Amino acid sequence: MGIALVSAALSLPGHALDKPTGAPLVISSIETEQAVPLAVVAPDGKTVSCVTIRLHWNPRTDVGADDDATSFALDIGADSPGASIFTAQLWNASLASAQAWQQPWQGARWKVLQTPATDGSGIDAALAVGMISTSARRPYPKETLVIGSLNPDGSLGPVSRLSERLDAAAATGISRVIISSIQRFDTDSSGQVVSIIKHASDLHLECVPVDNIVDATEMTMNDPLPDMPVGSSSPKYSNDVASYIDGFAHREQSEVANGLRFAPKESELSKYPPRTSVIWKNIYADYETGQQAYRAGQVYVAYQLFAQVNGRMRGVNALTGQNKATFNIKTALADSDDLRKRLHDLMTPPSIDKAELESAVLVSEMADWAYDINASLEGAQLVTKQAFSQRSDATEMEKDRAREAILFAIEQSKYLLNQADFYTGLLPHIGNNNPMPVDGNAAHLLPQLIPAQLATAQVFTEGIRQRANDLRDGLLFDSRLAAYMRILRESKATWETRQRNKESEAANNPGAKLDMSATATAVGFDPGNTYAPPHTVLVPSAAVKKPSDVALCLIWVNDDCEIAALDEKYLRLSGTIDPATHEWHLKDRAKLDALLQSAELGARHGIAFAEKVGIDSSVLSMVYEKAAHLRIQGDDTSALDALRNYWRCALLGNMCWQLAHTRKAKPVDAANVPSTADADKKTAKNDDKKTDDKQPAKQEEKPKTPDNTATASAKDKEPDKNKTAGPTTSTQATNQSPKISSPPPAITNDTLVVNPPPTTNSVDNPPAPPRALPVTDEHASTNTKNSEANIPVAPVAKSEDYTGGDMPSTTNAPPLVGPLPPAPAGNTVTKP
């Protein structure tokens, strides 16, 4: 992230203004710590309270090539059950806040003090706003509370127990709450729908509904973030990609036309068995929809629909002539296992993995295609095993349904597997001749993402466990849930193996450098007996190579959006299972439509962010097109899948942008480090200027150097693709603790203090070394340059604070001081 002086005009610390100051939120190079309020639910899910944590921001300019760009440390034990869940919320906040601020985190070292015991729900939005305000060195409004979850696209989602969270906020002196606009109305503990706005008003709370993390930050801090980039209103892939897809679509369309010559006519379907009749009706409907999409230029949707129709025709034809006498369950399950092994390899396709971003996006889409097929196949396996087990009480009709399901799924999967060449052949047609190898960045990020995913799964399974009796039938027949649970088990096994190998290597090589910011070994996810379907253990083919880390990061996006969609389906949007069709029907379809509206905009943001780093957005446009098609189908299952794909598009673009920009900081070049004497002269000269509060404004300007003339304009924030992002060498050099002959002046309201001294209560925690002069922000008024000095520098973090050991629950940082100078009249601007 760039380093700049934060120049804001605030009337009082802890109190937001009615209008923006006009000074944008800009990242500060000064270590800072401040309090941020959270509304939390206890791990037991019963107690709601409003607590205050302390976020400690330490911008490290000495981050080495082997260090993580971002790390989090909590003041609770690494083996605490809540540690992994809270860290997962921090990672959600980190990904969303970086995109909202349009500045990828680099060299960010975070500590959370006074970490509360929580179930982990509904706090990530508040953490994201807190991370932006703290690293911008702006006072967090102590009477404002953000309550909301974060969706993968950066939009704010609903939280549980919202009414009780408002009650807790009012009881602790909060006067203003920011909530998700999708939750203006909520269901209370008695099942009654209540107006959250009215409930807040009764509690004398100002309630502000917002749509996304950008709005939440701006409404909380009353200062602007950069405008979010949005591409074309209708994202399109390139002409070359369109021509390539058209060839496959034409091939599949011709195959459908040949197959339909021998198909029964719609008028004759009443003579067929009910399930067969339903399949043929779906075939006719999908073929007609595919033709409409083809005529509309949506060739990717048309191709997938035509291929699906051909697969279904193979499946329904396999049911002809089959009966109870000829069905062999062992043979069917063995055939399905063989197909799942092939699909398992295709979900991590190394053949098109070039360890760079554009190929990794295609790997992600191919993995999602294979996952869809595998989910239907595994769902059929699950139903069949349940129906034909020795202890099964299934009726003959239910057994017939299971037999038809497994036979249909096997034949359909066999055909669809032949479509793998579509994805493997697409790679040469995408790309801007600008390969972006970011495997090194991904290698540092992936070990953080996997535990976060498992901890998120732990929160989900805890919620499922509480509703197990109500959801049992839905869980049993949800093929995607069955497939995802297997993926989570495999992810946890892989993670634990990785951790054991690291521990073994460390034991065998005592001199090896350990990653002091590594995530704790213990991770959450343990579904227990709540949902433990019988699974066949699959061993990947020996010839399959491990995907690159960048590909695994983008496959992680698929998994993250999958569990977010399942969470919406089962825990946030009420629904029931149709016992006849086993279809899921939502009660809160209007809420899902509102989510879709927000997610569609988030997907366009994601495409724009990918394009900012020079990535061909054709594959993302394909995902967007698929989501737009699913959105208008009318049924709840398609709408949920549309939401998942919009989220994928948004998060894939976000991840590509972050991986492309999150470079490792370079070591300090000793040859360019200024001498101590020079540093003393500069410090003394600036101290003399600052102590005279009657000096004209122009004398308060810092000496201009090539490094401190940078601005925080939108153009300057955009990293140079040909350069490694990160702190400049001269910035690092000035942080080498230059000596000063006299202590810096005390903090006052009209004096800009370059190096405000922290309070220290112990000899083990010495004062922070003098800091370099911050860079001036040209957007700020010269009359408001004193605001950052009034937020104290936090004490320098000790090295043992980042080793995963116990950390103090208190802080030596002094409280925020004030009052700060008021904003000059006529200097406010309102962001359109």
**Count of alpha/pi helices:** 22
Q: Name the poorly predicted regions.
A: 1-20, 512-537, 664-832
DSSP strand count: 13
**Alpha carbon gap, first and last residue:** 25 Å
Largest sheet: 4 strands, mixed
Q: What's the shape?
A: globular
Mean of all residue-level pLDDT scores:
75
How many whole angstroms does the radius of gyration measure? Answer: 29 Å
Class by SSE composition = alpha/beta
Strand order of the largest sheet: 1-2-4-3
**Beta-strand content bin:** 5-15%
Helix % is 40-55%
How would you describe the overall organization of this protein?
The chain is of the alpha/beta class and 832 residues long. It contains 22 helices and 13 strands. The chain has a 4-stranded mixed β-sheet. A hairpin with a 6-residue loop joins strand 12 and strand 13. Helix 9 runs antiparallel to helix 10. The radius of gyration is 29 Å and the shape is globular.
